[in-house]
């Protein structure tokens, strides 16, 4: 099945924008897992299932990993220029993948519907490189120093570089 990612527009906004990368996945949860790899830090990720051919989608039995998963429904009633937002419905992959129900109801409602796991967590913040310092100029290297400090007002970090104070 084909999907596009839905990324939250900012941390905890509850509004989602359509991503531009097509995802090919065997289940909705697999599509979400793929989309999460490019999620903005602090934002949640959903997916928009789509089918290029008109008509009602065929029922796709959920994989063992997909069976029983639940998703909050995201709706885009203002058309393709609008954002997706929760509409209060919950779909579950029981008997068929939830994406099929989503596609069928898109046709019925006349606007796009997306899915986000009910237990979606924000993407982690990008990891900051560990410089070994939190602003302190204390360095423990097992050697003794003369005790003199940099005279230019800068600081020295072990493994880093000398930088003048701002």
How many DSSP helices?
2
- On the 0-100 scale, what is the average pLDDT? 80
> How many DSSP-defined strands?
7
* Low-pLDDT segments: 135-166
Morphology call: globular
Proportion of beta-strand residues: 15-25%
The Rg value, from CA coordinates, equals: 24 Å
Write the H/E string, N to C. Answer: EEEHEEEHE
Q: What kind of sheet is the major sheet?
A: 4 strands, antiparallel
Summarize the structure.
The protein is of the alpha+beta class.
Index terms:
alpha+beta, 23% strand, 166 residues
Report what the structure shows.
The radius of gyration is 24 Å and the shape is globular. The strands form 2 sheets. Strands 1, 2, 3 and 4 form a 4-stranded antiparallel beta sheet that branches. A 3-stranded antiparallel beta sheet has the order 6-5-7. Strand 5 (70-76) and strand 6 (85-92) form a beta hairpin. The protein has helices at 28-36, 98-109; strands spanning 2-8, 16-18, 23-24, 45-50, 70-76, 85-92, 112-117. The longest helix has 12 residues, at 98-109. The protein is built from 2 helices and 7 strands, in the order E-E-E-H-E-E-E-H-E. By secondary structure, it is an alpha+beta fold. The termini are far apart. It is 13% helix and 23% strand. Mean pLDDT is 80; it is low at 135-166.
Task: Give the arrangement of secondary structure elements.
Layout: E1 2-8, E2 16-18, E3 23-24, H1 28-36, E4 45-50, E5 70-76, E6 85-92, H2 98-109, E7 112-117
Antiparallel strand pairs: 1-2, 1-3, 1-4, 5-6, 5-7
């Amino acid at each position: 099945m084909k999907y596009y990612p839905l990324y939250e527009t900012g941390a905890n906004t509850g509004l989602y924008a359509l991503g531009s990368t097509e995802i090919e996945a065997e289940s909705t949860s697999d599509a979400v897992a793929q989309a999460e790899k490019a999620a903005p830090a602090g934002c949640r990720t959903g997916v928009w299932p789509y089918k290029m051919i008109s008509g009602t989608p065929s029922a796709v039995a959920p994989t063992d990993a997909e069976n029983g998963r639940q998703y909050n429904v995201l709706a885009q009633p203002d058309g393709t220029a609008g954002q997706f937002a929760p509409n209060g419905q919950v779909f579950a992959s029981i008997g068929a993948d939830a994406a099929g129900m989503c596609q069928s109801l898109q046709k019925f409602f006349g606007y796009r519907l997306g899915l986000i796991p009910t237990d979606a967590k924000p993407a982690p913040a990008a990891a900051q490189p560990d410089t070994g310092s939190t602003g302190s100029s204390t360095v423990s290297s097992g050697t003794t120093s003369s005790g003199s400090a940099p005279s230019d007002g800068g600081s020295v970090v072990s493994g880093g570089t000398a930088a003048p104070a701002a």
